[in-house]
Amino acid sequence: MTESTRTTTSTAPSGDGVPALPPIYCPIQPSVHPAALVNRNAIQWMRDRGFCESPAVRRRLEVSNVAGFVARILPQGDSSTLEAITKLHLWAFAFDDSIEQLAVRNLAEAADRQSYLVRILDAPRSALLADDPYVHSFREVWELFQDLASPAVLRRWVEQFRMFASGVVWGCVYRQLDVIPTSDTVTTIRIQDAAGGCTGTGLVEVAGRFEVADEDLARSDVRALTDMTHVILAWDNDIYSYPLESGKQIEHVNLVTTLVVHDSLTERQALIKAINMRNRAMWCYTSHRRKVFAPEGGPLQRYLRGLDHLIRGHLDWALNSTRRYDSGEHPVPALVLQEESATQIDGHDLTQPIDLPTIRWWWDDIHGGTGGGERGLHASSDSPSFDDRAPR
127 or 212: which carries more pLDDT confidence? Predict the structure, then answer.
């Protein structure tokens, strides 16, 4: 693969004796949709709809190039899908901040608002909170989606949003009670409440205007890759957003926080451990991905490529545009990317399973577990060109 100038393998202590953070491992090549100029239209839409009541959050979103983010995670889309999904992300970023703050004051109201959104997806003609700017804007985006995707794709995305809403409420309970969940619990919550994960994988089909057969998405090998994508996206977000969440005192449902509290680590030690865990998940993904069969040019192949783009696009945007995550008082840590395939980084073995019950099954499939049946873990002509020489 092409070497990156951002690659590093050194964790020598910095000048002040603080250990350097390990690089983020991602041997997936980037891809960017050329139509990132839709950001201007989406920002104007956000202003016109008036759903982002916080001037500080609105300013942060206006300079964060959210359309550039969507162009990286979903480069297979056209201008229409890109703009609709950019509007969804602007809405989601603003709504996320609003709900997290609301849950601390009034958990019941936060749960109500999430449930109302699900009701709108199930019954678009319902008049719940018709005058609420957030609800009105969400309904508008949902109407756009219905012109972009098939009923089957929309049905799957609705189910993913339902899971997302449930996860958000689950996380809100911990924030309201001021309790830090364990690593296994926080990972399970984040699989659900990280919108870039559980709803993001559903957007792959919406953006590309294609439909994967239900039986293909239900294959155990494909389900494993989808699950890995959810976790990698969630953990990456935890690593990037920890300073901002810590500054707002809402970092309860965050991998770094739970490592600080339950493993008795300093923040720096917890960041290092979180990155190492995330890198092992990435190695698991690449190893699994190379073995999954997908017919050339078919919808499943496009879906798998979409998962690759989600992971790499999210990384690139976060590494190059930290405005959303920089709270000023709690600077974002300097993170770098390692693109070259590896089985070790800074002495840490990437091939070792992560001992969390919620995800331990991933490695069972890699090392000869259930696989995907006759069409499961076989070499694929579509597999990314990872030069991963880990033992299989």
Answer: 212
Query: How far apart, in whole angstroms, are the C-alpha atoms of residue 234 and residue 230?
Result: 6
Q: Which residues sit opposite 25 in a β-bridge?
A: 338
* Average pLDDT for 331-343: 82
- CB-based burial of residue 8 (10 Å sphere; 0-12 exposed, 13-18 middle, 19+ buried)? middle
Is the predicted pLDDT of residue 34 greater than 50, yes or no? yes
Separation between Cα atoms, residue 89 and residue 117, nearest integer Å: 15
Residue 66, pLDDT score: 87
pLDDT tens-digit profile of 170-196? 999 998 888 999 999 999 999 998 866
Instruction: Work out the pLDDT band at 373, boundaries 50, 70, 90.
Output: very low
For 193-207, the pLDDT digits (tens) are 886 666 789 999 999
**281's tokens:** 């998940």
Q: Is 253 exposed, middle or buried (0-12, 13-18, 19+ CB in 10 A)?
A: buried
Tokens found for residue 141: 């985006």
Per DSSP, the residues of 106-164 read: -HHHHHHHHHHHHHHHH-TT--TTTT-HHHHHHHHHHHHHHTTS-HHHHHHHHHHHHHH
Match domain 25-367 to its CATH number in 1.10.1670.10, 3.10.20.90, 1.10.600.10, 3.30.70.3190. 1.10.600.10
- 8 A C-beta contact, residue 157 and residue 145: yes
The count of other CB atoms within 10 Å of the CB of residue 278 is 23
Residue bearing tokens 């039986």 = 215
pLDDT average, residue stretch 92-115: 90
Residues 46 and 94 sit within 8 Å (Cβ to Cβ): yes
Cite the DSSP H helix spans in the chain: 39-49, 55-62, 66-73, 79-105, 107-122, 133-146, 151-177, 183-193, 195-198, 200-208, 214-217, 220-248, 255-262, 267-289, 299-320, 361-366
Q: Is the CB of residue 148 less than 8 Å from the CB of residue 209?
A: yes
The Cα–Cα gap between 317 and 369 comes to 35
How many CA within 13 A on the CB side of residue 376? 17
> What confidence tens digit (pLDDT) does each residue in 295-312 have?
999 999 999 999 999 999
Tell me if 87 sits within 8 A of 156, measured CB to CB.
Answer: no
Report the C-alpha gap between 86 and 36 in whole angstroms.
Answer: 10
CA angle 233, 21, 72 (to 5 degrees): 35
Cα R_g (the chain), whole angstroms: 20
